[in-house]
Amino acid sequence: MIPNTRLPNNVEMPLIGLGTTHSGGYYHDAVLHSINKCGYRLIDTAKRYGVEKQLGIAVTNCSIPREDLFLCTKLWPVDCGDGVFDAFRTSCEKLKTDYLDMYMIHMPQLPDWIVDQKETKEKTWRQMELLYEDEHVRSIGVSNYSIDDLEELSEFASILPHANQIEFHPWFHQSDLKSYCDEMGISVMGYCPLAKGKYLEGEVLCRIADKYQKSPAQICLRWSVQQNVATVPKSTDFKRLKENTDVFDFELSEQDMNILSSFSSKNQKIVDLSNICQKMSLPDGYKLNGRVFGVPDDSEQMQKTCSKCAPNQNLSLSVCI
């Protein structure tokens, strides 16, 4: 059983979830195995990843009731401003659900063609707040936000984000940002918790892993969850999917936690967002390159849509919410 952490609004969220980024392809059997056999309940995705439709089929086909799952997806920058509600509704339709457990703004950057960026950010967050206030979503959050981004958002937010999802692993974890979020009552979620496997063979990490009779990957995941940071590793390997959840039967010593945290002194960031604005207009899921495996045809399945909306009518946001 994967334990939960409690968000600032008292909604419970699993400490370990399944990441579904487009790297490595999408394997339907692996997703079902993670839910049915490994106890994953948090499923983290995004419109940008291009797999919401496939995940919707998995959610429908798995043996776990929808109310026991925690579905999180993200708003891509091109949909900010007036496009928030339509993007939300489309994601719900693809995921075959009538609500989300968390809806996030994928990143603070906006397309260059938006003239008044601060006004658009304010409008976007207000619509996120409306989705939450009208119970379309159980929590709202942001991703890749820095301290400066969060301070700007706080200038106009009525509700602060319930979570900020950031790159978080021993080699890059922005302790100042984590401390700021803690002080503001914003939960931290971590992506790339294994640094995409780039440093898992390091001598010091392997020595710590041997000490606890765990794998290097398990040590990294334990380092995250021991800081109450919910984390979303991705794997398509059945054995590793199970292994990634087996991190709650031991505790890292304070000394080992500090050693692991010290790895970040070289600032080994994995995800480069420096040129993200140049990629905003690329199609969602473009990195998949057609690598989607084992997904059954859902043409005969009923599409679920938001029960508080009218999907067959061209209603404006103000009417729907």
From TrEMBL:
Question: Which regions span the lipid bilayer?
Answer: none
Positions that bind substrate: H106
- Give the record's keywords alphabetically: Oxidoreductase
- Tell me, what is one Gene Ontology molecular-function annotation carried by this entry? oxidoreductase activity
Catalytic residues?
A: Y49 (proton donor)
Domain named NADP-dependent oxidoreductase: which ranges? 16-262
What's one Pfam family the UniProt record gives for this protein? Aldo_ket_red
Q: Where is this site: Lowers pKa of active site Tyr?
A: K74
CDD domains according to UniProt:
AKR_CeZK1290-like
Family note: Belongs to the aldo/keto reductase family.
Q: What is this protein called?
A: NADP-dependent oxidoreductase domain-containing protein
What organism is this sequence from? Caenorhabditis nigoni
Gene name of the record = Cni-ZK1290.5
